[in-house]
Amino acid sequence: MPIIEPVIRPPSESSSFLLQVTTGCSSNHCTFCGAYQNKEFRVKDEQEIYDDIRQSADVFPFTRKVFLIDGDALAVPNRKLVRILKNLQGHIPSIRRISSYANGYNITVRDDEELKELFDNKLKLLYIGLESGSQDILNECKKKSTVDEMITAVNRVQKIGIKASVIVLLGLGGRHHFKAHVRDTIKAINKMQPRYLSFLCLMLIPGTPLYADAGSGKFRELGAGEFLVQSYEIIKGPELEKTIFRSNHASNYLSLEGVLPRDKVYLLETLEKAMNGKINLKPEIFRGL
Fold first, then answer.
1. Tally of domains in the chain
2. Is residue 287 part of a domain?
3. For residue 285, is it within any domain?
4. Is residue 1 part of a domain?
5. In three state form, how does the secondary structure of 143-187 look?
6. Low-confidence ranges of the chain (pLDDT < 70)
7. 104-121 per-position pLDDT tens digit
8. Which residue segment(s) compose the domain that 178 sits in?
9. pLDDT at residue 31, as a whole number
10. What's this model's pTM, rounded to 2 decimal places?
11. CATH number of the domain where residue 221 is located
């Protein structure tokens, strides 16, 4: 079956086989997110998923990476999700890594044995949207997963062997919560020690509650320079052991990459140059989701 659009995937999954397991997101009420606002959440029929796997195997028999879409594949219980993972490996033996977005609550509801079962069936990477370490900001944004829940989720999957890629949304909370967003995000990242960390920049999407708040003046969006300052402050703060950092999403004004803490000085110096006008930022017209 053709993929039901729109499709959202991380930049690092550009070459992966996209297998649609669910449509939409089981927590489709975050005020800043318009990704699935016109897409009802449902788990796809299992036979339909198997047909998609078989068709892909016929065309791309040597696929190495698979990304499960849409926004919430771990909403599928283990008894079904493991069958899907096994079917993937049966039809495409060359697979080395399966990955997915995941909400914190869909991880913490599983016990360690269930998480280990997913890992043993090649689910090796989960992308988790922390967005902000401030619970007050998440409450305002109506995000279902709590900060503590996401910290627990990251620690538990990484203990099992599944790598976590944690996503921070710069600008969430606007100017009013600027300091809290920085301070509490640093605290959360320190507790997580994620294998991967990425920054995205908030973009206001027409039709979302946050867009309406910005229009009424209730929410004050950051400017390009303020995004750089917030990025600088969050990178400067954490004491990380070994985290691969990326800020290469289409929404970002400045593309950055490195390993923390090894490249912290380089990243901060690059941001300083950008803040001082010595590096050109991405024009607004070229930013996107």
1. 1
2. no
3. no
4. no
5. CCCCHHHHHHHHHHHHHHCCEEEEEEEECCCCCCCHHHHHHHHHH
6. 1
7. 999 999 999 999 999 999
8. 11-278
9. 94
10. 0.95
11. 3.20.20.70
